[in-house]
Amino acid sequence: MIDKAYLIQTGGSAVAVGVLIALAAWAKISKPAPPLSDVRARALFADEFPGKALDSLWVTVDGRGALARSGASALVLCEVGDGYVARHIPWAQALASTFRDGVLRLDLADIAAPKATLAFDAWPPAGLV
Amino acid sequence: MLQAPFDPVALAVPFFVLAVILEIALAKARVAHAHYETKDTFASLGMGFGRNIFGVLTAGITFAATIWVWSHRAFTVPFGAWWGWVAVFFLEDLTYYWFHRLSHERRFWWAAHVNHHSSQHYNLSTALRQTWTGGLSGTWLLWLPLAWLGFSPAQIAIQQGISLVYQFWIHTEAIKRMPAWFEAVFNTPSHHRVHHARNPRYLDRNYAGILIIWDRMFGTFEPELDAEPPRYGIVKNLADFNLLRVAFHEWIAIGKDLAGSRSPREVVGYLFGPPGWSPDGSRDTSTMLKAQWRAEQSRRDA
Description:
heterodimer, A: 129 residues, alpha+beta, 2 domains, 4-stranded antiparallel β-sheet, 3-stranded antiparallel β-sheet, B: 302 residues, mainly alpha, 59% helix, globular
């Protein structure tokens, strides 16, 4: 049998959680997340994949992600909240991924980040060697 | 004494709530440095709330095991003896250090602990991003020797609660450094920011609960450098704020790896190897990431 004190404590905690989330939303104090520039994307890739040279870089049209080629790998960067999530997949897989309505859908094969969607004008990018 | 006469964590909950409100208010007023993102705050507080529910599932077993061991104790530490409280303070904190180190350096226990590190923020709500599967991972077994030594289940529970309450306030960027003597002895916001950072320099460092002396003694201490601000989160960050993903993603990943295992060595490696272990070395462990980082540093310096 669940005791009364536990129920009161749980109910009170639920109310407090709701109030704190509402307060955080009202305060609007998340980290600044302006659209990515080439420079910022390169800096983020350098943090995420130290030592990996970028052969080519494409920033999404909405500035909320980027994709880079590094040898046989595609390095992927996607906005999540006011931060980013990064993964790498084989370049050939990125090249063959579905592109529809201006959105590239990448299967990252990772339960922590199953897929990424990146907005581009075209894919594969024009002029790709 | 079996049942603790009070629960430090339950008593501290109103303080937790007020402290988060204060941190948000000071950040809003630009008096203190703190960032809160709404979905991230939801995930952190949701995990803390869920812990109340999941904790009940294993609390009975943990309590019963502690009582059983205590009933076979080697000595008896009187509940009211001052020296008993001094002893349990140090011994519980030492136990916490090894629990925490195990929870980072071996994947099975990392799976239960990773959720606490999965926020890319570092604020007081991050402190409440607690595990749902800690009880199932069995790390509570590490505290049983204290009961065997004669500390009562109530005394152990109270000291565990004090440690948890202490560790709340260090999850903040609002406090830069404490006085030098305090930084030398106690775990502080600065030391714990290092622990939550994913910069290769800072990985797997500063496991302390209350006292930082254990890290200094066992070689896992790393100071926070102003020149290298911590980047928070995990090596491979989560792509969303789904509570089920936060709580269970590493367990599911272990399950997938085990399903694809081809030998007992691989099973043991996937379960009890360091996080990031793989049979062919194609994934990165903390040790490998640190080595890559050092090589990159050397290349730049050359």
